[in-house]
Amino acid sequence: MGSAKFFQIGSYVNVFVYHNVQLKPFDLLWNYQGDSIEDYWDCFETLRIVCIKEKRFPWLGLPNDLNYDTLSTTKLKILRLVSQLSEMVFAVIPTVKTYDIKPFIILHYLVTIKLVIERMTRLFNKRKETKLSDFQMRSIFIQNFFLKEMVAKNILPKANVGKTFIDGMIEVMRIANELEYPEPLDCVWCGDKILGPVCFPPHVDTRCCISMMPMFVVAEYKCPYCKSLAHKQIEEEYSPIYCPYCDVVMERIIMADEQLKEKCRLFELETSKQKLDVCFADCLKEKIDVNEIEENDTEYIIFRRTAMKSHLTV
User: Fold this and answer.
1) At the top level of its lineage, which domain of life is listed (predicted)?
2) 102: Cβ–Cβ under 8 A, 6 or more apart, which residues?
């Protein structure tokens, strides 16, 4: 028998899970056939605790002949988080004989490619009925650039995926390449045209996790789990706004002073097509090797919800 106890301290939630040891959290995740992982975060957290306690990797039980190319977006999201947990607990594993899951950054790219294909397809279908906004058209341009970038970086061969990903990418890229787009925005930090998900050379930047559009001053939404941010204009497409990686409702960022918030928005509109002072831009530029942006830091999963469904209790 088991139970889950939740109580709130400030804006965070301490989670104590006493689960049936016969129920394996990874098996519950892997056998899940739904379209959202929103109600399965108790499994991820229990899996993390169990792996730290038993000093083992979270992916034990993963099929050896797994074909990543045919996996659903949901399955790839699960593996992305399991890989992140794996990198987090790596330091406590006494002996590493094999490592039977792809690196987090590769799985992050695969999930992002899937999400981009799905969103572009949805916008193309919407375009048949109504005109898309400049925000949406610029976003399509940026995300099409991202897909081309994935090809140039050889991400698909590195991930050992093929036909399913290639066919999906070719289809949306074929349509996107034939469209006419509004003039790209200028980056307020470096002054270059915003053509892709990052400027070149890369520098400090904030992008919407759904549209890849820049947010110069004010982000409207934030994921309570992974801290991803979303642009206000995503409201044109979704309500409520869900984090594309965590499948949880994103929290609206509230500023105490609404007048200050409005000033920030006006500043963003006024500067979105302007180049800031050259000295300021040079100070923000960083000399980063493009290959280094594939490195990632491991993070703990933090819970901030006041209630959560548990799949590990009986």
Assistant:
1) Eukaryota
2) 68, 79, 83, 159
What's the whole-model pTM score?
0.78
Distance, CA of 90 to CA of 103 (rounded, Å): 12
Q: Can you list the pairs that 215-218 forms with residues at least 24 positions away whose Cβ atoms lie under 8 Å?
A: 215/268, 216/188, 216/268, 216/271, 216/272, 217/264, 217/265, 217/267, 217/268, 218/253, 218/255, 218/261, 218/264, 218/265, 218/268
CA 138 – CA 135 distance, rounded (Å): 5
Q: What is the pLDDT, as a whole number, of residue 16?
A: 55
What is the mean pLDDT of each successive set of 10 residues along the chain, which is 314 residues long? 42 55 85 94 91 92 90 98 96 90 96 98 97 97 97 94 95 97 90 90 87 84 94 93 97 71 59 42 40 40 40 52
What is the per-residue pLDDT across 55-76, written as a single tens digit (0 to 9) for each? 999 998 898 889 999 999 999 9
Q: Is the dihedral of CA 73, 75, 76, 81 positive or negative?
A: positive
